[in-house]
Amino acid sequence: MTRTSYIGIAMTALLCMPLATGAQQPPQKAPPTPPAPATKEQTQRQEVRKEVGEAVDSIRTYSFERRQEALAVARRSMDELDAQFDRMQAQSHADWTKMSEATRSRSQRTAAELRRQRNALSEWYGGMRQSSAEAWTEVKGNFIASYHDMVASMQRARDDLRGQPPEQQDAKPEKKADQRK
């Protein structure tokens, strides 16, 4: 026999050995369970959030001459954030008696921080309404950045309200054009 034949026989023997000796394959891990399907209402809310976020990003393209259009988009975006915040507050109030004292305190701090961010967003909106042509680019950029900051904070608050530990919370980076100076 040639050397190649011996190698072939040895390889075949090695491959068949686990079968002959009754060796078992390592247990296979079960595939991860898919997340629970989102309700129709949750899916619609996610779509609205995506559309509103895209609309806010589109403000970047509005020139000073199109300020009124940009303000209308900004106003609708802020209204949607307000509606989301109201829903979160209602959920928090509904769960209040089930919360531990630490969770209640954290919920109050989170709500206060979201209100602070919402006030900052309103100030940038006011700046967009009053800005000069020279300041327009900077002010609308800061409005967009402030909006994305608030969206990220609200996502963390939603995750917290759902009881997800911080290490499992959605850590996706938000699109943010932090142009504040």
Structural commentary:
By secondary structure, the chain is mostly helical. It has a domain at 40-163: Four Helix Bundle (Hemerythrin (Met), subunit A). It is 67% helix and 0% strand. The protein is built from five helices and no strands. The chain starts with a helix and ends in a 20-residue tail after the last helix. Mean pLDDT is 76; it is low at 3-27 and 166-181.
Which helices and strands, and how do they pair?
Elements: H1 3-21, H2 40-58, H3 67-94, H4 101-130, H5 136-161
Helix pairs in contact: 2-3, 3-4, 3-5, 4-5
Determine the oligomeric state from the structure: single chain
State which percent range the strand residues make up.
Answer: under 5%
Mean pLDDT: 76
Architecture per CATH nomenclature, i.e. the level-2 architecture of the domain at 40-163:
Up-down Bundle
Give the overall form: elongated
Q: N-to-C terminal Cα separation, in Å?
A: 80 Å
Describe the main β-sheet briefly: none
**Helix segment tally:** 5
Name of the top-level CATH class of the domain at 40-163: Mainly Alpha
Report the count of strand segments: 0
List key phrases describing it.
mainly alpha, Four Helix Bundle (Hemerythrin (Met), subunit A), 5 helices, 67% helix, disordered N terminus, disordered C terminus
